[in-house]
Every structure is written in structure tokens, then in C-alpha cells.
């Protein structure tokens, strides 16, 4: 966003000078400069309520002054699976405290649903899982407010920030459900819900600034306006490296772990962390900024009426990149979303598309397995300008992979375990953006942009008193390799149990010799394997778990933590059901009691999942 006389206190000349300067700065320089300016005016009294200034109803940024308005207590709740919603909630909590608000921050599962009737202002930040489900720690509150015992919430105020991924059908569904239900129960919206796509930073800033603005109002009102957004979310959250400031890691090793004849290609990638000055923990992820396949970019440019070198606008702020560069690194081109189709209706001016896109069901079916090239071929744009592409395309999301190495064991390196995604659809071969880039186009000696994405909900004990049960078929085994490396580094033996599964023993036994060595050396106490395609009947990890039902229950009763990592759609659901069966069988519980038991384990962080 650019400054001008209507959205800032500067005259035209000053605004132009500042815009020129800002456009030449890196995000780090901007953060430094803002700190410098704050420090330099520290002694000066603030002339206005300076940090929330209103112009034409626009909340411009945060207030550092105590408001004279009596502040109502705020309850800030988050529902988070991978830590994004939690990170935002912690950041917002800190900001609200700095602004002198009385605010109580809690994970939803640490909040007693019955206390809902006692809250005054309720702020919710929540993600959505796979098929529109609430994250694990949001389930109880979600069910409570949707159940018969939900209280009337007249007189309460609320606002919801929903995190999600536009490529999923039930985009931000959990946030939407909370928003609808709280309103239905009588609470008043303090500020409208914002639905964020994977690139959530700017929208989250907007929500936070407007919520603060609304909280500062004497009476509640819904601020609809845009705010000046900063890179605050990212720079405050990611202390070291981030999407805006990745670390360029040299590739040391890139090998296929599967043997000849396998149906799979699983890459083991080792990256150097020289002068990294950051750390990671077992359970954390490595975020990679990927590039689109050059062949796909070339094919797309051939179908567009613009030259590869044309400079095009890539965002609202007016930043520019060449068409080539923007399609390679900045925009997502290999997936279609409902919102993309709706924008294409406006921008393409193609009557056929306009007519078809009136039906939601048509959009839902059409976007499945198709990409931008398909859309342009099927519905050639009549009117699109190069500078409008940014209105059509979303930013290329970073990809996150569970780290498969331990910082304690090997601080100068980080390893990941990545399954190459390749499939055919609508008559063309397709590939996963990042997994196939890593499999086919990244050689040792090259560098790739990365940063660490911490996962507060997938944490491992650093002692050998707590029994640890690890369930991870396929690439889901990655964090357990990291954990056993860590236990070796810390000399922690025993009390670990791994369930691993893949298709074939001979070709797909990922890290086979490492597990065997850890088993022989006592770092891994128990090890069960399930090769699904070596026998007539499929054998999966949950079949092994059932065989060990009694011992598994003993471990659980002795305080074990259960970890599940890997496929969300089928495996994680089946493993969950198997745990219920085991608890029913071994502890003579009813199905509901076994569910409650698992829910309690989740609350106590003794049942943790990283599923995708
Ligand atoms: P998979 O989970 O696909 O396969 C590992 C083993 O699990 C196989 O033996 C498979 O058997 C078995 N399996 C299949 N269904 C079940 C089930 N219901 N319960 C238990 N085991 C089952 O391993 P991958 O590492 O290939 O993929 C893991 C998941 O991650 C997949 O869902 C994949 O789509 C997803 N994913 C992977 C990415 C990556 O790393 N590139 C990126 C994004 C998502 P069989 O095949 O014989 O049925």
C-alpha cells in the first residue's frame, strides 16, 4: 500500500519521498527504521492518539496510549494444529497486553466451555483441518457451542480470525462456524470475521488492527475499513529467518530412499546450516520457498499474450517483477481455486466461463486436478491485462516438511524426507510443485531458500522416564528419525516404540539400517513394521497395533505419549479408531468412554498428531 494525502498525515511531497524510500528497503530495514524512529521520539509527548488514527473510518495502526474508555476483559482463544493460529494468538496477546488491555489467552482445550457465559469480549483465532474439521484442540468447544447446552450470549462481543487454505473445499470452515454460531447465540460482532489463505500475514494484521480499533471504541461498532498493514506478523513471529528473509541452505545430499522397482520416490535431503544462528527442535518443520516447474511456466507464457520479460504488477502495493520471474517464483499456477475462477469471470470476459461459473457445483468439479493452463485453454481470456494477473493468482505458498534430523545430534545440518508427488489428470502428467522440484531440479552444491517453522503441538520429551509411542507410515516416519537421533545424542535409552509401514520390505523400508542400529543399541525399545503389499491381505500399522493391544495399553497406563504422523485422510482416522478399540478392549470402556479417554490424553499433550 502506498501513502498519500488521504491515508496519512503527510503532504504529497513527503508522501512521495517516503514511498520512494520504503520501496527501496528490505523488510528488515523497514523494521529497523521503525524501531529507530520510535526510539528517536520516545521523549516527545504524543500529539494525537497517534497510533490509532482514524481517517474516513480507517483504522491506521495501533495505539500505545491507554484509552480512557473502561476496558472490558478479553478472552482470546485459539484452535491450532500446526501452530500458526497459536503463534498469531500469542503475538496478539502480547500486543493487547502492551496496549493495557485485560486479556486472557488460552488454547481452546484449556478453556472450560461452561465459562463461555462469563466472558465479555471473545476473540477467536482458529485454523481448519482437512475436510472442514476443527483442529484437535478446538473440538470440545466447537461441539459445545453447537450442542443443546450452548448458552445464550446476549451482551457479549466477539470477532473471529479464520485461517485456512483456499485450495480446500471447506476453506476456513471452522472459523466460519464459530462466527455464525456465536452470532446465532446472541453475541454481537465486534469486527467482521476475516478468512485468511495460507499467506495469512497481511490479513491477520488487518484483523488485529481493526479489532484493537473496535475495542477502543466507546460502543461497539464494526469497522469495515482497510488498515495500513505492516510486515509485523512475520517479523515479530519469526525471529530469525522467514518467508520474507529465508536462509539459503546448501544442498549436501539428495538421494532416493526407495529401491529400484518401487512405486514410490522418497527423497532424503540434507542441507547445510553454516552460520545459521537459529535452532530447531524435534517435531518442527522446514519451510521451503519453492519454484514452479520451468516447463510449466514456459507452456503458460506461450499461452499468454505477453512477453516473458514484460514487467508486471504483482500486488496491490504496485511491486513489479518480470512475467517470467513472477510465474516461476511468486504466483501459484498449478492449482485452481473457487476464488480464482470467480476472479477469472471478471477478468477474462469469456461468456462461456461466466455462464458455467454461475453454478457452484460446476466450479467444484472443474477445479479438481486442473491448473491455469487448462483454464486458459478451455476459456481463453478476451480482455486480461498483464497488470491484472495479480488479481487472479494467489501467492505461491511455502511448503512445510517435517524435519527428520536432530539439532542436538547434528547442529550444522537439517534433513527432510519428501515423497515426490506425481500423478496424471485430465490427460496430462502433473507434479507436486516442491516435492518434484526437490526430486528433479535440486542438485548438491545448489542452495534453496528455507526457514524453520516451529510446531508447538508436536513436542517430544527429553527424558527416558516417559514412554513414547510413535506411529508413522511412509514419510510420516520423518520426525521419529529426528527423535531417535536426539535420544542417541542425549544417551537416552529405552521406553520408545515405533510403528512404521510402507508398501514393500525390499524397496520401501525407509532408513532401515538406522532403525536396526538404534534397536540394537537400545535407543529404540520396540519396533513394529507393516508392509502393506508383500502379502495377499494388506497389513497396516493399525493391524500391528491391534496385535500389541495389551502391551500398548500398559504403555499408555504408564503415562506414554502417543504420536501420529503422516496421512490425514485415512491413516490418522483409522489409527484413532484402533486406539479406541484397544482402550475398549483392554480397559473395558464403552466407545464414548474411550473417546473421552483419548480426548483427555490430547488435552494433556499425551496424544499428539502431525497429519497432512
Ligand atoms: P502413504 O501414507 O501413502 O503410505 C505409507 C503406507 O501406509 C503404505 O504402506 C500404505 O499402504 C499405508 N496405508 C494406506 N492407507 C492406510 C491406512 N488407512 N492406514 C494405515 N496405513 C495406510 O505414505 P507417503 O509417505 O507416500 O504419503 C504420506 C501422506 O502424505 C499421503 O497422504 C500423501 O498424500 C501425503 N502427502 C505427502 C507429501 C509429500 O511428502 N510429498 C506432500 C503432501 C501430502 P498402501 O499404499 O498399500 O495402501
From TrEMBL:
CDD domains: SiR (cd06199)
Keyword Flavoprotein: yes
EC code(s) of this entry: 1.8.1.2
Residues covered by the FAD-binding FR-type domain: 244-461
Name of the top EC class for this enzyme: oxidoreductase
Domain (Flavodoxin-like) ranges: 74-212
Cofactor: FAD; FMN
Assigned keywords, A-Z: Amino-acid biosynthesis, Cysteine biosynthesis, Electron transport, FAD, Flavoprotein, FMN, NADP, Oxidoreductase, Transport
PROSITE patterns, A to Z: FAD_FR, FLAVODOXIN_LIKE
The keyword Iron appears for this protein: no
InterPro entries with a match to the protein in the record: CysJ (IPR010199), CysJ-like_FAD-binding (IPR003097), FAD-bd_FR_type (IPR017927), Flavdoxin-like (IPR001094), Flavodoxin/NO_synth (IPR008254), Flavoprot_Pyr_Nucl_cyt_Rdtase (IPR001709), Flavoprotein-like_sf (IPR029039), FNR_nucleotide-bd (IPR039261)
Molecular-function GO terms, alphabetical: sulfite reductase (NADPH) activity
PANTHER family: NADPH OXIDOREDUCTASE A, NITRIC OXIDE SYNTHASE-RELATED
Protein name (Swiss-Prot/TrEMBL): Assimilatory sulfite reductase (NADPH) flavoprotein subunit
Organism encoding this protein: Staphylococcus canis
Amino acid at each position: 500500500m502506498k501513502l498519500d494525502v488521504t491515508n496519512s498525515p503527510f503532504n504529497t511531497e513527503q508522501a512521495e519521498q517516503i514511498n520512494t524510500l520504503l520501496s527501496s528497503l528490505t523488510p528488515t530495514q523497514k523494521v529497523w527504521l521503525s524501531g529507530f524512529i520510535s526510539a528517536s521520539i520516545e521523549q516527545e509527548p504524543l500529539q494525537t492518539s497517534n497510533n490509532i488514527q482514524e481517517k474516513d473510518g480507517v483504522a491506521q495502526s495501533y495505539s500505545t496510549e491507554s484509552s480512557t474508555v473502561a476496558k472490558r476483559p478479553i478472552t482470546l482463544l485459539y484452535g491450532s494444529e500446526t501452530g500458526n493460529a497459536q503463534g498469531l494468538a500469542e503475538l496478539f496477546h502480547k500486543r493487547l497486553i502492551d496496549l493495557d488491555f485485560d486479556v486472557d489467552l488460552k488454547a481452546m482445550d484449556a478453556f472450560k466451555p461452561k465459562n463461555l457465559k462469563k466472558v465479555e469480549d471473545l476473540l477467536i483465532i482458529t485454523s481448519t483441518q482437512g475436510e472442514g474439521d476443527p483442529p484437535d484442540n478446538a473440538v470440545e468447544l466447537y461441539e459445545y457451542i453447537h450442542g443443546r447446552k450452548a448458552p445464550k450470549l446476549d451482551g457479549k462481543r466477539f470477532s473471529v480470525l479464520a485461517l485456512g487454505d483456499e485450495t480446500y473445499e471447506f476453506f476456513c470452515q471452522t472459523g466460519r462456524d464459530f462466527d455464525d454460531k456465536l452470532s446465532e447465540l446472541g453475541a454481537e460482532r465486534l469486527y467482521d470475521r476475516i478468512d485468511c489463505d495460507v499467506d495469512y500475514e497481511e490479513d491477520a494484521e488487518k484483523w488485529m488492527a481493526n479489532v484493537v480499533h473496535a475495542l477502543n471504541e466507546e460502543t461497539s461498532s464494526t469497522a469495515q475499513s482497510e488498515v495500513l498493514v505492516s510486515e509485523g506478523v512475520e517479523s515479530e513471529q519469526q525471529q530469525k529467518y522467514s518467508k520474507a528473509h529465508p536462509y539459503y541452505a546448501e544442498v549436501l545430499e539428495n538421494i532416493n530412499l526407495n529401491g529400484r522397482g518401487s512405486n514410490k520416490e522418497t527423497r532424503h535431503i540434507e542441507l547445510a546450516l553454516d552460520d545459521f544462528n537459529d535452532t530447531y527442535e524435534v517435531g518442527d518443520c522446514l519451510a521451503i520457498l519453492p519454484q514452479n516447474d520451468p516447463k510449466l511456466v514456459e507452456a503458460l507464457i506461450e499461452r499468454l499474450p505477453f512477453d516473458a520479460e514484460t514487467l508486471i504488477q504483482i500486488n496491490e502495493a504496485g511491486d513489479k517483477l518480470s512475467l517470467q520471474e513472477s510465474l516461476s517464483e511468486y504466483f501459484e499456477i498449478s492449482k485452481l481455486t473457487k476464488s480464482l475462477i470467480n476472479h477469472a469471470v471478471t477478468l477474462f470476459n469469456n461468456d462461456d466461463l461466466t455462464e458455467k461459473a454461475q453454478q457452484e457445483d460446476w466450479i467444484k468439479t472443474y477445479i479438481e486436478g486442473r491448473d491455469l493452463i487448462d483454464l486458459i485453454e478451455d476459456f481463453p481470456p478476451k480482455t486480461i491485462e498483464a497488470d491484472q494477473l495479480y488479481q487472479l493468482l494467489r501467492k505461491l505458498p511455502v511448503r512445510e516438511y517435517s524435519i527428520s534430523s536432530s539439532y542436538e545430534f547434528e547442529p550444522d545440518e537439517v534433513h527432510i524426507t519428501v515423497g515426490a508427488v506425481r500423478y496424471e489428470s485430465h490427460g496430462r502428467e502433473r507434479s507436486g510443485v516442491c516435492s518434484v522440484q526437490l526430486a528433479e531440479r535440486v542438485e548438491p552444491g545448489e542452495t534453496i531458500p528455507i526457514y524453520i517453522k516451529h510446531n508447538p503441538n508436536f513436542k517430544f520429551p527429553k527424558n527416558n522416564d516417559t514412554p513414547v509411542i510413535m506411529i508413522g507410515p511412509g514419510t510420516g516416519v520423518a520426525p521419529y528419525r529426528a527423535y531417535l537421533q536426539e535420544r542417541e545424542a542425549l544417551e537416552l535409552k529405552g521406553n520408545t516404540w515405533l510403528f512404521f509401514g510402507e508398501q514393500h520390505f525390499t524397496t520401501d523400508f525407509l532408513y532401515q539400517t538406522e532403525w536396526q542400529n538404534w534397536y540394537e543399541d537400545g535407543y529404540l525399545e520396540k519396533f513394529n513394521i507393516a508392509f502393506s503389499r508383500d502379502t495377499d491381505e494388506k497389513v497396516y500399522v493399525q493391524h500391528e497395533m491391534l496385535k500389541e493391544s495389551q502391551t500398548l495399553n500398559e504403555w499408555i497406563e504408564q503415562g506414554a505419549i502417543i504420536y501420529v504422523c503422516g496421512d490425514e485422510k485415512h491413516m490418522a482416522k483409522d489409527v484413532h479408531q484402533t486406539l479406541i478399540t484397544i482402550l475398549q478392549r483392554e480397559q473395558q470402556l464403552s466407545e464414548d468412554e474411550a473417546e473421552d479417554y483419548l480426548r483427555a490424553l490430547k488435552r494433556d499433550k499425551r496424544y499428539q498428531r502431525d497429519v497432512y
